[in-house]
Amino acid sequence: SEVISSKMPEPEKPRLPKLKFTKSIHSSSSMEDDSYTGGVPNEESILSARLKLSNQPWFVGMMSRADAEKQLVKGKHLDFLVRESTNRIGDFTLSVKFNDRARHFPIKLTRDDKFFIGKHNFQDMSRVIQYYQAHPLLYDDDQKPVSLGTPLDCK
Fold first, then answer.
1. The pTM is what?
2. Secondary structure letter of residue 38 according to DSSP
3. Would the pLDDT of 60 be above 50?
4. Which of 34, 68, 134, 151, by CA, is between 20 and 30 Å from 127?
């Protein structure tokens, strides 16, 4: 005889985008804000972010993942660049050369004009870079902290 369960199936949990880090981003209480405010930025916010970033030596504008990898191959260990995503409007990516390959860390521009990476919001992209030049972005296979090096010269 067939047994019918009266138990309702568990609802699916929402899938959050996963960040691809070697181990994990270092949490710090020195951050301005540790909450993601979410939402999609408006066009004015995106244009404003582009304008502010255009003078930074590490910002290369809109660039595909494949093109970023071609640029990083020319660099040295821990060189990095920040690029605007070609497939997610308003998003950016921190691309870093680590152990002879490129690693990509998504950065979201939030509705309230903050930059969200890992677990942290920053007031501007320069603070993201400064923070991860002084703090671990990831940990290597031996659990040693790894921070950003210098901007890749690709302009």
1. 0.73
2. -
3. yes
4. 68
